[in-house]
């Protein structure tokens, strides 16, 4: 994987993380956090899709590697929503 491919993959993860955070209504931070949330969302969403035996409708291929865009957005939304619920509970105590 070249540097340009890695940067493109990070950009896709940042977009997926940002969209997932926007859908959940809870933002965890800036651009670097969106990249992390996008990658965690990709793992979470793809695992959920495989568990439910659902297809991968919008994979993005970068340098021979596939990134599950739709499942990354869904997983990012789930991940940030869970973190939002947990942080709100902790703030109420």
Question: Which SSEs are present, and which pair or pack?
Answer:
Layout: H1 3-24, H2 31-51, E1 59-62, E2 65-68, H3 69-92
Antiparallel strand pairs: 1-2
What does this entry look like structurally?
With 93 residues, this protein is mainly α. The protein has a domain at 30-93. It has three helices and two strands; from the N terminus they run ααββα. It has helices at 3-24, 31-51, 69-92; strands at residues 59-62, 65-68. It has a two-stranded antiparallel sheet. A hairpin with a 2-residue loop joins strand 1 (59-62) and strand 2. Helix 1 (3-24) crosses helix 3. The chain is flat.
Short description:
By secondary structure, this protein is mainly alpha-helical.
Attribute tags:
single chain, flat, 93 residues, mainly alpha
Largest sheet: 2 strands, antiparallel
Number of strands: 2
Helix content: over 70%
Major sheet: order of its strands? 1-2
- On the 0 to 100 scale, the average pLDDT is 87
Show unreliable segments: none
How big is the Rg? 14 Å
β-strand amount: 5-15%
Distance between the termini: 47 Å
> Based on CA inertia axes, which overall geometry fits?
flat
**H/E element sequence:** HHEEH
Please identify the structural class as seen in this structure: mainly alpha
């Amino acid at each position: 994987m070249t540097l340009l491919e890695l940067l493109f993959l990070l950009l896709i993860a940042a977009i997926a993380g940002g969209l997932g955070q926007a859908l959940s209504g809870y933002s965890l931070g800036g651009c670097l956090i969106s990249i992390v949330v996008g990658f965690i969302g990709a793992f979470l969403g793809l695992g959920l899709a495989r568990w439910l035996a659902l297809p991968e409708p919008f994979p993005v291929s970068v340098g021979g590697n596939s990134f599950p865009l739709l499942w990354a957005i869904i997983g990012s939304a789930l991940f940030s929503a869970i973190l939002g619920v947990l942080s709100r509970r902790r703030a109420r105590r």
